[in-house]
């Protein structure tokens, strides 16, 4: 099985066009186009912020599984799940700020990416609740399901960024892409 082909098949799912258009409109209305949108999109940084922010929840949740399963430190695992959950809202906002800027095929992938990650967040929320109630085996199961869901979401996010080029060179001139002036680039093409 070619994983790239599987991921690429999502961008051909035309059935996602209507929900993606709705999501794009909602994101556009909620986030707008002002300073907040520019900050969340990373104009100050020169590239999208969302890929940077995802490292905190993903890293926390992977570490929580390690602390639970390998070190049997349930308290640390619970705290790490909480850190990931606290880091999720700004990560989601940054992703939704980028969503209206995507083309149709990218929005299809972005929508499935978001839904998969939403399932993961629900699983980690249930994991945290189970840890708080000292139902550690249930918490461990929810953590593993959450990791599976965000792995799918992460693979789709990688496809969106690297295979589809979402957000690439949004603020850089052609020179950043080719190390040539825009005129030299047009002549070479």
UniProtKB/TrEMBL annotation:
Residues 46-168 form the DUF2231 domain. The chain crosses the membrane at residues 52-71, 80-97, 109-130, 142-162. It comes from the Bacteria. Keywords: Membrane, Transmembrane, Transmembrane helix. This is Putative membrane protein.
